[in-house]
Amino acid sequence: MAQEQYTCRWAALSLSNIASVFLPDLLQPRPDSEPIQHELVCVSTTGGNERAAKWMNENKIPNQESVKVYNSWEEMLEKGDFDIVYISTPHTLHYEHVTKALKFKRNVLLEKPATMNRAQYQKCVDLAVQQGVVLMEAMWTRYLPATKYLTEELLPKIGEVKRVYAEFSFPIVSPDLAHSSRFLDKQAGAGSLLDQGVYALTWADIALNGLGAGSTITDVAHASSMSVPGVPGEVDDIDTLVLSKHEKDSKQQKAVGIVTTSMTLTGSSKPAFYQRLIAKKASPAVRIEATKASIAIPFPPIRPQELHVQWYGEEFLGEDGIEKEEIIKKPVERGWGIWYQADVIAAAVRDRKGSEKQGEVIGAEESLRVLGWMDQAREQAGIVYDEKLEQL
């Protein structure tokens, strides 16, 4: 029997730059046959109704007249009539905003990185379970067709992963960028590791732990950082991490991960942001090397659409004696594909309607693991933020 169609009603806490990408992507027209639909029903902004109206017009939000505008995010969380709140404020504010939302028993999709550190997100996870709601970090890359195919179809077949390279460098910081920009403001959580490294570390986690960690643990064996030149506050820029996956008891090393990120390298910062983001690069952004095959993922790693696989063994050799490359295309169905994650949390909320079960945190283990690696890397590389931003 076909499942009844469900329309998920969204609230937006902040009309941020990333909200200007996510919400239009979420609200694209869908075939009536799809079981989940989405609508925006309320937003909060300190800019008032005029600011909200301008933002909705610029982003072509449908049914604007039915979107309720709140001038207080706390009032929206307390009184708004919606199913899920999308929180996309600077990550230094995430802990305050998500804990307040959870206390009002709201389901939450929270932008990445979920919080400033692992301890903060662990508190959020515990609170969501206690309050009986759904919480999810918006690591949208995990839910794209190419990523799902890799984890479900390829990882079980390529043997034991021994090494992974994960790189995400993108020039969001140019020499003429104002020092007051969010990307250079340490009080707003600026820094390459938290802003971009979270993607590269997520790919390392998918490769090293995509089939489960089992009896192993992965730690940061080395981390170094170079700051953005000429900017006060030592904003981290060129970061390099080495991950070591080893047995918990014997400490025998099983695999290694090399993760790099930068917000000044590589390429020009002049073309439009999204033009640069989809520009092809010569080398792959991610390379997974296992005992039976290797997989390369072209840039950009945040939005993979094809997987380049080389299988090992004589039966896969070409006439030149080199393993043939298989290119598996798994394109995004429409838009940027940020909406896939929204379908995941919407389905979880739909399935819990009227339930008294304890709460659910989608991807909790993975999010906590990556946040833990960033904690370790920051300590080793000397990346420091105001301690008030780290408090519980």
From TrEMBL:
Sorted UniProt keywords: Oxidoreductase
Molecular function, one GO term: D-xylose 1-dehydrogenase (NADP+) activity
Enzyme Commission number(s) of this protein: 1.1.1.179
InterPro entries: Gfo/Idh/MocA-like_OxRdtase_N (IPR000683), Gfo/Idh/MocA_domain (IPR050984), NAD(P)-bd_dom_sf (IPR036291)
Catalysis performed (reactions): D-xylose + NADP(+) = D-xylono-1,5-lactone + NADPH + H(+)
Enzyme class: oxidoreductase
Ranges for domain Gfo/Idh/MocA-like oxidoreductase N-terminal: 17-137
Pfam families: GFO_IDH_MocA
Similarity-based family: Belongs to the Gfo/Idh/MocA family.
Protein name: D-xylose 1-dehydrogenase (NADP(+), D-xylono-1,5-lactone-forming)
Species whose genome carries this gene: Exophiala xenobiotica
Lineage: Eukaryota, Fungi, Dikarya, Ascomycota, Pezizomycotina
